[in-house]
Structures are given as structure tokens and as C-alpha cells.
Write a structure and sequence with these properties.
The chain has about 230 residues and is of the alpha/beta class. About 20% of the residues lie in helices and about 25% in strands.
């Protein structure tokens, strides 16, 4: 049984934003890849809106997949509300191009990925269209792995006015998730969303927050910020 795990958590890269061509808009992903190498992470979590829309060019997708394939550790992608896993999705196109072996996209048919070599299971409910959904409602029970990670792309409810938003995530859902760590996306700035005994956080986007989160799991769960572009 594995006794420790280090992961990098990020979200909302919005690759291909404003119609930027391949190569012009990959800087956020390049910075994330550098952070994975510098921190010695075992796993990369990409929690939604990795692409700005399902209309980005094939070349943007191809170049992003190429970069993810070079990172050297497994990457798990949760489709968000911008890059939902529905008709015409970037991820359906990516599958036809051929996903690198270490890149896993959560889909309606595959909401959980188990990585035996890391003794971890990762679950997330992908956005499949542009309608509302509850990203963290009724997650599955833990399996036999040492570590269980949940991914969710949505809006954390903190006050009554948050109920007017879409893709709601409730603190009680985090507390009852059964996860060791809940990786959140949808907010461009970092935020500690821990509830009960469960550690949870928004990483923020690389462009706005200028960071990723590094999560250490051993006898406890510790989260630290790793600035991008610096050591």
C-alpha cells in the first residue's frame, strides 16, 4: 500500500481563448507542466475549462495533448462548463486523434479512474452539456485504494445569494464526499473550501492566480501554493 502521494491541482486554463492559434495560447499549460516537474508530483489534476470552448481548433487540441503526453505523470481531466463532454466536444475530437496513454478524460461512461501504481482512485462528474448540474451530488463510495480524490467544477455555496448561481456545490457535500481531497474548478482565484474533515480547495486559474496547488497526502492532507514562473 502506497503511503504518500503528491499531486498538482489546477483548473480554468481556457486554452484557445479568443481564437488564439496553436502555440500562442499554450503558455498556461506549459507553466503547469513546469510546476509538475519542479515539485516532483506523481499526478496532475485538471479540473475543468481546460479549453475555452468546444470550438477551439484541432491544432490547439493536438498541441495540448502533445504537451500533456510529455509531462511524464498521469493527467486526469474533468470537462467543465466551457469544454463540456457533449456533442462536438473537444474531448471527442481528442479521442479520435489518440489520447496519450497517461491522459485520462472523465466522461459520462467513465467517471472514475483507478491508478493502481499510485494506489489512488479519482472520481468526477463531467459537464456533458450547458445545462445546470450538481457536480458533487451523490459521489460513489470509496473503493479499495489508499487514496480517494474527488474532482468537481462548480460554484461553492457560502451565502444565500450563492443559490442564484449555477453548478452548485454545498459544503455538506464536500464534508460527506468520503474523499481525502476535493479538487475544485470554476473560480479563477484560489479559495479554501474545506468542510468537516475533508480538505477541499479551488486552485484558481494559472493566468489569474499565477499558481498551482501542490497537495501532499500521507498521514494527513497538506495543501501549499506553488507560484508559476518562479521556483
Amino acid at each position: 500500500m502506497r503511503t504518500s502521494l503528491r499531486l498538482v491541482h489546477t483548473s480554468d486554463l481556457h486554452l484557445g481563448i479568443d481564437g488564439r492559434r496553436a502555440g500562442e495560447g499554450l503558455a498556461p499549460l506549459e507553466a503547469v507542466a513546469e510546476a509538475v516537474a519542479k515539485t516532483g508530483a506523481h499526478l496532475l489534476l485538471l479540473c475543468g475549462d481546460i479549453f475555452d470552448s468546444n470550438r477551439v481548433s484541432d491544432q490547439v487540441i493536438r498541441d495540448a495533448l502533445g504537451l500533456l503526453g510529455q509531462i511524464g505523470v498521469p493527467s486526469i481531466i474533468l470537462p467543465g462548463n466551457h469544454d463540456c463532454h457533449g456533442h462536438g466536444s473537444v474531448y471527442l475530437r481528442a479521442e479520435t486523434m489518440g489520447l496519450p496513454p497517461q491522459v485520462h478524460v472523465l466522461s459520462p461512461q467513465r467517471q472514475q479512474v483507478v491508478l493502481p501504481e499510485l494506489d489512488v482512485s479519482v472520481w468526477g462528474r463531467p459537464h456533458v452539456d450547458y445545462r445546470d448540474l450538481r457536480p458533487l451530488h451523490h459521489p460513489p463510495s470509496r473503493g479499495g485504494q489508499r487514496w480517494h480524490i474527488a474532482l468537481a467544477h462548480g460554484h461553492l455555496v457560502r451565502q444565500s445569494w450563492d443559490l442564484e448561481r449555477s453548478y452548485l456545490i454545498f459544503p455538506q457535500e464536500i464534508a460527506e464526499s468520503g474523499a481525502h481531497y476535493v479538487a475544485l474548478g470554476h473560480w479563477e482565484l484560489p479559495y479554501d473550501a474545506s468542510a468537516g474533515t475533508v480538505v477541499a480547495a479551488y486552485s484558481g486559474s494559472p493566468q489569474m492566480a499565477r499558481q498551482v496547488l501542490v497537495v501532499e497526502l500521507d498521514h494527513q492532507v497538506r495543501v501549499r501554493r506553488h507560484p508559476l514562473g518562479r521556483g
